[in-house]
Amino acid sequence: MVTTPELIEILCADAKPVRRLRPPLLRASLWLLFAGLVLFALAALQGTRPDLAERLRQPTFAAALAGSLLTGVLAAVAAV
User: How many CB atoms lie within 10 A of CB 35?
Assistant: First the structure.
């Protein structure tokens, strides 16, 4: 049976340097940019709601849309 110090030595002998991850806010920003591009492409291909301008003038719809957007952004930041 291998002891813990021996196991550590075996694992360290084959270890290779790793590349550092990008800063979390940069990774979240890149993810959000990608998500925005996908949404833009979907809107371009499928079209937007015909009554979108009218619906955006309604405070409840605008608040729900803003809340959904904020939830998505915060979820992306929390994930990274």
Answer: 13
Q: With DSSP H G I counted as helix, E B as strand and the rest as coil, what are the percentages for the chain, rounded to 5?
A: 75, 0, 25
Contact between residue 28 and residue 80 where contact means Cβ atoms under 8 Å apart:
yes
Shortest CA distance to 51 belongs to which of 41, 60, 61, 42?
A: 61
Question: Whole-number mean pLDDT of the chain?
Answer: 91
Q: What are the two backbone dihedrals, phi and then psi, of residue 51, each rounded to the nearest 5 degrees?
A: -105, 25
Tokens of 33: 């940019």
**Structural contact between residues 76 and 28, judged by C-beta atoms closer than 8 angstroms:** yes
Categorize the per-residue pLDDT at 42 as very low, low, confident or very high, splitting at 50, 70 and 90.
Answer: very high
Place of tokens 């998505």: 72
Overall pTM surpassing 0.70 (yes/no): no
